[in-house]
Amino acid sequence: MNTIFDYIMIPMQLIIVFFTLYYFIIAFFGIVRKKEIKILKPEKTMAVIVAAHNEEQVIGHLVDNIHLLNYPRALYDVFVVADNCKDKTAQIARDAGAIVFERFNLEQRGKGYAMEWMFAKLFGLKRKYDAVVVFDADNLVHPDFLLEMNNRLCKGEKVIQGYLDSKNPNDTWISGTFAISFWVVNHIWHLAKYNIGLSSVLGGTGMCIATDVLREHGWGATCLTEDMEFTMKLLLRGVPTTWAHDAIVYDEKPLTFMQAWKQRKRWAQGHFDVAGRYIPRLITEGIRLRDVRILDGILHLVQPYFLLLSTVFVISSYIYSFVPFYTNILYSILPVEVWSVIAVGQYVFPMIILAKIKAPIKSWFYLILYPLFVYSWIPITFIGFLHRHDHEWSHTEHTRSITYQDVLLRQADDFSKTGLLSKQAIK
Fold first, then answer.
1. Which residues contact 59 (CB under 8 A, 6 or more apart)?
2. Which residues contact 351 (CB under 8 A, 6 or more apart)?
3. Spacing of C-alpha 269 from chain mean position
4. CA–CA distance from 160 to each of 21, 73, 152, 230, 398 (Å)?
5. DSSP of 81-118
6. 16 strand-pairing partners
7. Beta strands in 106-262, from DSSP E residues, in sequence order
């Protein structure tokens, strides 16, 4: 018998079925890569930009690393915007050979504002570049990064995100599970979408943007998740974000749960902020243009709302086991066998990815704790929703002073323990 609660619970179940099937099916397209004939001749000029706020511990290693990339030095320059720094970031970057611009503005704080200011400075220079490449100060970069981006630019791609790897996946269980989450997303989300022609999303670092796109559309992304805001702004104007699977950047992952909590809370706040401002326009434009890439972008922005919705449904299902107060249609739409396959798939996909990239032994142990990391997103998302209008920037302190040689040594050590050569080490 239908109840008044069915007006809420039945649509909720239909939404859950749709999202579950949609992302489960898409994930399969990220298991295998398409064959690609690469353009290996360096051609495009690039401005490599690093936004840094009090990053004296790590900035020198990154600038040294960038100067040793497998790309003609005449075709790229390294810029560091020292944003409201109170330490030796600017001097260390200069000593390492970067062109440094110092910015002081306590009213407009955050990476988005720093990037907008830096782009204006860049466009005022005599030398013009074909593209800008953006890194965070705590990053290290694979030697072929610019060569891979050159390949994409020469093929006409305008906005490209690189492969986000970890430079410290073995430090703690937090950095380890964080690394697993990025590896999984790189494959079953970014690569999968690229393989089927959907738009990816910029990740804040390891991204390449053609300067003609910046000149035409401007940056204008200054919220807590400026990368997502810029992605959606361009998607509205018909410019998708593509994916360069072999353009690898090594990012520093948080070491403690509280560091990870604060960082992800900021991401959740920014996600809700961008969703509230862009979903209505994306719906209108997506329907008008019948563009599946825009409609998929809407689904990406709706993800945290879906997490809130599914959490409410799970709580309701526990109540239902004692007091049936709505009509359960989940098993009417999909057989229990299908739900079982999907449930198992949530654990199998990460295992496939770890095997595919020849992950270190420690990562397999961290995989046991991976569900804890995933489910911790639930309270973070709820808090992010409540604070979605709070735009105060929260800086993540970076302390792991690791060189690219250290990364190679760690990979060699993984090799000696497993007898397997990692994907990153063979690049």
1. 50, 52, 80, 89, 92, 93, 96, 137
2. 367
3. 15
4. 27, 21, 8, 12, 25
5. EEES--SSHHHHHHHTT-EEEEE--SSS-SHHHHHHHH
6. none
7. 131-136, 140-141, 159-166, 207-210, 242-251
Cα 423 to Cα 406: distance, rounded to the nearest angstrom: 16
Kindly list the distances between the CA atom of residue 417 and the CA atoms of 250, 363, 366, in Å, as whole numbers in the listed order.
21, 13, 16
Q: Looking at the DSSP assignment, which residues form a beta bridge with residue 250?
A: 140, 165
Give kind and range of the element (H or E) at residue 295.
Answer: helix 292-320
CATH number corresponding to 11-33+41-427: 3.90.550.10
Q: What is the pLDDT of residues 31-74, one digit of tens each?
A: 998 889 999 999 999 999 999 999 999 999 999 999 999 999 99
Q: Regarding beta strands 207-210 and 159-166, do their DSSP bridges make them parallel or antiparallel, or are they unpaired? A: antiparallel
Q: Residue 396: left if φ>0, alpha if ψ -120 to 50, beta else—which one?
A: beta
Question: Is 0.70 surpassed by the pTM of this model?
Answer: yes
Distance between CA atoms of residues 279 and 285, nearest Å: 10
Return all residues near 124 (Cβ < 8 A) that are at least 6 apart: none
Strand (E) positions, 252-373?
none
Q: Is the dihedral of CA 110, 116, 118, 119 positive or negative?
A: positive
AA letter at 260: A
Whether 211 contacts 128, CB under 8 Å:
yes
Chain segment 100-157, per-residue pLDDT in tens:
999 999 888 889 999 999 999 999 999 999 999 999 999 999 999 999 999 999 999 9
Name the residue ranges covered by the structural domains of the chain.
Answer: 11-33+41-427
Distance CA 158, CA 21 (A): 31
Query: Token match 């073995």: residue?
Result: 170
**Residues contacting residue 31 through CB under 8 Å, at least 6 positions apart:** 187, 188, 352, 356
The per-residue DSSP string of 235-263 comes to HHTT---EEEEEEEEEEPPPSSHHHHHHH
Cα 397 to Cα 411: distance, rounded to the nearest angstrom: 25
State in Å, rounded, how far the first CA of the chain is from the last one. Answer: 61
Cα dihedral 272→276→281→284 (10° resolution):
100
